[in-house]
Structure formats: C-alpha cells, structure tokens
C-alpha cells in the first residue's frame, strides 16, 4: 500500500534530508587515498549523533554499520572495513538518516584520487541517469516512465542497469511501496500521485548487469568484476514537480 504524505510530513523528511546532504558534502571533503571506509562509517555516525539523528541502517535486519560502502566492483551493501582506499578506486556511500522518526535515503559515488577515464564516464553517466529519472517523476506519469528513461539513457552510453535492486517508497519505514525499477517499459506501473515519496537510485555497471552476493549475505558485486556506481535521491511528488529531499 502506498502511503501518501502531507506537506507537513514532507517538510519533516526534508529536515532529515538536509542532515543527510550536509553529511555527504563533508564526506566529499575527506575521501582520498589512504582513508578507510570504516573511518568514513565512524565519521558519519558521529556527524549524525551531533545533530540528534540516527543512522537507520544500523541494526536493520542485523546490518552492523551506519553506512554501506561499496568499492569498485561492489554494487551495493558493501561493509565498511579497515583496508585503505587507493588512488583510482571508486566508492559508493549509502545511508539512511532518521530524524524524529522520518527518514531520508541517499547514495553517492566518489572518485578516490585520480580515476580512469572509463570510471569517470561511469560516474557521470550514473549521476545523469538519476536526474533523467527524476525529470519523469511528475504527477500523472507512471513508474515505468522513470524506469524506461533511465534504462534507455544508460544503455545508449554502453553500460548496463542492475536489475536485482530497485528504488522504493520511503517515509517512517525505510522500504515502503511502490518499488521503482530502473529498467522497464514506459506507460506501465503505478501512476504517480501528489504526496508520494520515493527513492530513485540507479546502479550502473560497466559490464553485465548480473550480480552475486558475498558470503556476508549482504554485499552484491558484479559478476564480471567490472566497476559499478550508484547515485540516489529521495524525492517527493508534488503538483509543481518533484522536490529532491536529499539535494546537495
């Protein structure tokens, strides 16, 4: 069941989103060769605590960290760890912020030092795909219009869209209806209505879209070992167009 949010509820989510986007801005300043994703996790937890916010992911179905930190061929749900990031790596930091019971969710991919031209293109295409999807998130369109726009653009650039993980509704719960795939046919799926709050979060691979799950039962990585990137925003559907709750 889709839970429609009031203007006041969306404003509460925007407050959580402001903390989240501010956190990502600070992460961008500290990402460099020689830092570990475990250090980033600890930084985020302290940042949120100072602002009376909670890392919603920590403890979710047993997940032990404040962030997901997915490096290179890891698609999503990477565990923060002690190994140091190296020049040329890419890392996606994903987090969900809880402020007074209302949630915001955003992932961002970062370049570590100097990255290859192929990796830079992957980041550029994935970020543009997110905003192409957001352009379709208007009252009267259908979920499939978002999905198709993202898939068409990504594949035109020679990359592939991950099928196994999708966007979703969000509010007081991390995962609400509806699901928002990043692939599909236009004119299909649920019609978008004012007051819906969704995440759009394309995961894009250089190679095949297939994935495998690590032994930790959380981390997904590409089947072929090639790079993957992700950008994600939480947004509200309004009569005046989408409001990006986690805009940086």
What can you see in these coordinates?
- One of its GO terms (cellular component) is cytosol.
- This is Methionine aminopeptidase.
- A divalent metal cation 1 binds at residues 94, 105, 232.
- Residues 11-239 form the Peptidase M24 domain.
- It catalyses: Release of N-terminal amino acids, preferentially methionine, from peptides and arylamides.
- The protein has 248 residues and is of the alpha+beta class.
- It has one domain (5-242): Creatinase/methionine aminopeptidase superfamily (Creatine Amidinohydrolase, Alpha-Beta Complex).
- The protein contains four helices and 15 strands.
- It has helices at 7-30, 37-50, 117-135, 143-156; strands at 54-55, 68-71, 74-76, 90-99, 102-111, 160-161, 167-169, 176-180, 197-200, 203-205, 211-213, 220-222, 228-230, 233-236, 243-244.
- The strands form five sheets. Strands 1, 2, 4 and 5 form a four-stranded antiparallel sheet that branches. It has a three-stranded antiparallel sheet with strand order 3-12-11, with no helix packed on it. It has a three-stranded antiparallel sheet with strand order 6-10-13, covered by helices on one side.
- Strand 7 and strand 8 (176-180) form a beta hairpin.
- Helix 1 crosses helix 2 (37-50) and helix 3 runs antiparallel to helix 4 (143-156).
- The longest helix is centred in the first third of the chain and has 24 residues, at 7-30.
- It starts with 6 loop residues before the first helix and ends with a strand.
- The model has no long low-confidence stretch (mean pLDDT 98).
């Amino acid at each position: 069941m889709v839970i429609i949010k009031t203007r006041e509820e969306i404003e509460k989510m925007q407050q959580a989103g402001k903390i989240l986007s501010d956190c990502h801005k600070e992460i961008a300043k500290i990402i460099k060769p020689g830092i570990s994703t475990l250090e980033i996790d600890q930084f985020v937890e302290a940042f949120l605590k100072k602002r009376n916010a909670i890392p919603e992911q920590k403890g979710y179905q047993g997940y032990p960290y404040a962030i997901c930190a997915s490096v290179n061929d890891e698609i999503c749900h990477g565990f923060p760890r002690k190994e140091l990031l190296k020049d040329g790596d890419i890392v996606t930091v994903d987090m969900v912020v809880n402020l007074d019971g209302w949630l915001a969710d955003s992932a961002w991919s970062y370049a570590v030092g100097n990255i290859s031209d192929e990796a830079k293109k992957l980041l550029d295409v994935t970020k543009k795909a997110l905003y192409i999807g957001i352009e379709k998130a208007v009252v009267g369109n259908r979920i499939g219009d978002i999905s198709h726009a993202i898939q068409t653009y990504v594949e035109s650039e020679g990359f592939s869209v991950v099928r196994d993980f999708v966007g979703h509704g969000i509010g007081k719960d991390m995962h609400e209806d509806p699901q928002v795939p990043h692939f599909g046919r236009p004119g299909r799926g649920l019609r978008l209505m004012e007051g819906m709050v969704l995440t759009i979060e394309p995961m894009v691979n250089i190679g095949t879209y297939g994935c495998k799950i690590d032994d930790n039962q959380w981390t997904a990585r590409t089947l072929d070992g090639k790079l993957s990137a992700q950008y994600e925003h939480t947004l509200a559907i309004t009569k005046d167009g989408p409001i990006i709750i986690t805009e940086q």
